[in-house]
Write a sequence for this structure.
C-alpha cells in the first residue's frame, strides 16, 4: 500500500512523513516543490529507506501528478503543500493564490480523473485528505466560544483567504463529483523543523543569536498551540476513520497570548542555556509595528474529533514547548542551514524599520 503526501518536506509534512513511516509503515510518495520552506534535511534520517520516494515538483503540475498517481496507485492523498506564512502573504499574495488555490485545483482535477477510473474496493477505500487551518474562521473576541466546524468562514489575510478557497474547492469536489474527501482545520503547530520565520522558532533563534525578540503590537493576541506530532496523529486518525465529506477541527485547548509564549520560551532558555551576562532573555523583547489586519484570537473546539474518533493530544503546552526548545538547542546545525541565504533577505524586509 502507498500514500501520496504533498508538501512533505515542510514543517508539518516532514513530521508527518517521519511519523507515518514510524507508525504505519506504508510507502510514502512525497511530492514537494522545495520552496524556501521545503527542506530535505528534515528527512535526512530516511536516506536509504525504500519506503520514502521523494519527487521534486508542484501540485499545480497536472501532468506530473497524473503520472505519479498512475505509476504508484496510492490508496490516499494527504495534501499539506501550501504557502503558509501570513506575513509573506501580506507582502506578496500572488504565490498564495497560485499554490493554495490553483495548485489545489489542479491536484483535485488529477485526483478526480485517477479516482474516477478506480473500481471496486480501491475506489471505495480511496481518500483525499486536505490539511487546512483554523484561520479560515477569522478572529474571535475575548469571550467568544472556540471555533466549531460549523463556524462561518471569515478569512482575514490573503493566506487564510487562499486556504478558505481551497477548502471550498475540496468540499465542492465531494458534493459535485462524490470525491471521497476529508478536511482537517488545525490550530497553530509548533515543534521540530519549524521554519524560523514563525513566532516560536524565530524567538528561540533570535534569543540565542542576541537579536531582538519582535512582538507585534501589544503582544496580547491569542493563539491555540498544538505540538506538531499531535497534529500528525490526528491526521492519521481522520484518514483511518473520518466520515467522508466531513471536516474535523484539530487543537489542544492551549490558548496563550503571544507575550506569555515568549515569556515561557525565555524562562526555559534562561534555565537550559543562560545568557553570558546573567540577564534573562526577556531583556531582548522588543515591541514592533503590528501585522496589518492581525487576527486577535484563535481557539479551536476539537470535541468532534475526540467524540467521534477518540483522538486526544499526547502533549500539554508545557511538555511540548520544553521538547521544542531542547530540539532547537540540539539541532543548531539545522537552524544555521535554514537561516542562511534568502532567509536573511526576508528578515531584513520584514523587520527593518518596524521598531
Ligand atoms: P510549510 O510552509 O513549512 O511547508 C509547506 C511545504 O509545501 C514546503 O515543503 C514547500 O516546499 C511545499 N510546497 C509549497 N508549494 C508547493 C507546490 N506548489 N507543490 C508542492 N509542494 C509545495 O508549511 P507547514 O507549516 O508545514 O503547513 C503545512 C500545511 O498545514 C499547510 O497547508 C498549512 O496551511 C497547514 N497548517 C499549518 C499550520 C501551522 O501552524 N504551521 C496549522 C494548521 C494548518
Ligand atoms: O492558526 C494556524 C496558522 O498558524 C497556520 O495556518 C499558519 O500556516 C501558521 O503560520 C500560523 O499562523 P500565525 O500567523 O498564527 O503564526 P505566526 O507564527 O506567524 O505568528 C503567531 C503569532 O505571533 C501571531 O499573532 C503573530 C505574532 N508574531 C509573529 C511573528 C513572526 C509576533 O508577534 N512577532 C513575530 O515576529
Amino acid at each position: 500500500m502507498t500514500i501520496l503526501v504533498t508538501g512533505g518536506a515542510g514543517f508539518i509534512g516532514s513530521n508527518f512523513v517521519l511519523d507515518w513511516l514510524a507508525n504505519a509503515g506504508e510507502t510514502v510518495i512525497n511530492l514537494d516543490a522545495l520552496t524556501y520552506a521545503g527542506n530535505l534535511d528534515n528527512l535526512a534520517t530516511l536516506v536509504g529507506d525504500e519506503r520514502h520516494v521523494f519527487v521534486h515538483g508542484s501540485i499545480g503540475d497536472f501532468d506530473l501528478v497524473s503520472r505519479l498517481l498512475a505509476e504508484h496507485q496510492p490508496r490516499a492523498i494527504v495534501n499539506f503543500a501550501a504557502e503558509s506564512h501570513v506575513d509573506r502573504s501580506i507582502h506578496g499574495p500572488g504565490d498564495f493564490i497560485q499554490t493554495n488555490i490553483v495548485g489545489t485545483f489542479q491536484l483535485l482535477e488529477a485526483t478526480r480523473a485517477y479516482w474516477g477510473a478506480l473500481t471496486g474496493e480501491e475506489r471505495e477505500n480511496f481518500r483525499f485528505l486536505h490539511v487546512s487551518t483554523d484561520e479560515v474562521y477569522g478572529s474571535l473576541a475575548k469571550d467568544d466560544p472556540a471555533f466549531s466546524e460549523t463556524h462561518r468562514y471569515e478569512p482575514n489575510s490573503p493566506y487564510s483567504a487562499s486556504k478558505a478557497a481551497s477548502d471550498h474547492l475540496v468540499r465542492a469536489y465531494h458534493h459535485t463529483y462524490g470525491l471521497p474527501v476529508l478536511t482537517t482545520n488545525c490550530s497553530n503547530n509548533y515543534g521540530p523543523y519549524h521554519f524560523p520565520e514563525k513566532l516560536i522558532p524565530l524567538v528561540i533563534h533570535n534569543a540565542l543569536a542576541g537579536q531582538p525578540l519582535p512582538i507585534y503590537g501589544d503582544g496580547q493576541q491569542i493563539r491555540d498551540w498544538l505540538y506538531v506530532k499531535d497534529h500528525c496523529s490526528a491526521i492519521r486518525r481522520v484518514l483511518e476513520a473520518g466520515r467522508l465529506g466531513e471536516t474535523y477541527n484539530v487543537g489542544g485547548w492551549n490558548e496563550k497570548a503571544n507575550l506569555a509564549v515568549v515569556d515561557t520560551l525565555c524562562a526555559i532558555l534562561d534555565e537550559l542555556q543562560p545568557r553570558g551576562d546573567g540577564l534573562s532573555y526577556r531583556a531582548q523583547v522588543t515591541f514592533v509595528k503590528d501585522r496589518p489586519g492581525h487576527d486577535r484570537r484563535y481557539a479551536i473546539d476539537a470535541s468532534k474529533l475526540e467524540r467521534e474518533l477518540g483522538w486526544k493530544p499526547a502533549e500539554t503546552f508545557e511538555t511540548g514547548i520544553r521538547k521544542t526548545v531542547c530540539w532547537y538547542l540540539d539541532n543548531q546545525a539545522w537552524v544555521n542551514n535554514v537561516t542562511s541565504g534568502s532567509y536573511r533577505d526576508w528578515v531584513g524586509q520584514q523587520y527593518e524599520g518596524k521598531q
Notes: The mean pLDDT is 97. The domain at 2-192+225-252+297-314 is CATH 3.40.50.720 (Rossmann fold). Residues 137 and 151 are 6 Å apart (CA to CA). Residues 84-86, 133-135, 187-188, 198-199, 202, 214-216, 221, 223, 258, 291, 298 surround DAU (ligand 2) (CB under 6 Å).
